[in-house]
Design brief:
With 143 residues, this protein is of the alpha+beta class. It is 52% helix and 15% strand.
């Protein structure tokens, strides 16, 4: 797992699996990832899909923390819930979480503040926008 892909798990603390296409676009549903992969194949590009599960993310964070000497993946930070969080994580809404609530999310060994996480996620979204994916178009409409 690379750092860019790990950001998606860090930003979506209740998601247990994600599907990534070869161009590093993330999807919650395998069907959506396969559809995007098919469009990549039509363009003559690699259309592979990789499923990643939270356990892989936890192991990645633990190894990063061990390398940095920070003590493991049990560390969390406060995150103030935004409307975007609720839009992207319906399970938060189902749990009664509202905009402005504070939740605990995993702390990546290289990220020390919620602002850094948001900046990293913004960079990932900008990269997705540059590729013109449906995910990027959806994100662009929300702004």
């Amino acid at each position: 797992m690379n750092k860019e892909r790990s950001l998606f798990f860090g930003y979506h603390p209740t998601v247990n699996e994600l599907f990534f296409t070869s161009d590093d676009c993330a999807f919650f549903k395998e069907n959506d990832a396969n559809a995007h992969a098919g469009s990549l194949q039509k363009q003559g590009k690699d259309g592979s899909v990789t499923k990643l599960i939270r356990a892989e993310y936890d192991a990645f964070v633990a190894s990063e923390a061990q390398e940095a000497g920070t003590g493991g993946s049990d560390e969390t930070i406060d995150h103030e819930v935004t409307q975007e969080d609720l839009d992207n994580n319906p399970e938060l809404v189902a749990a009664g979480v509202a905009v402005g609530d504070t939740i605990q999310i995993p702390k990546d060994a290289t990220q020390t503040t919620p602002e850094e996480i948001k900046a990293d996620v913004k960079a990932v979204v900008e990269k997705a926008k540059a590729t013109g994916t449906k995910v990027a178009k959806k994100a662009a409409k929300k702004k």
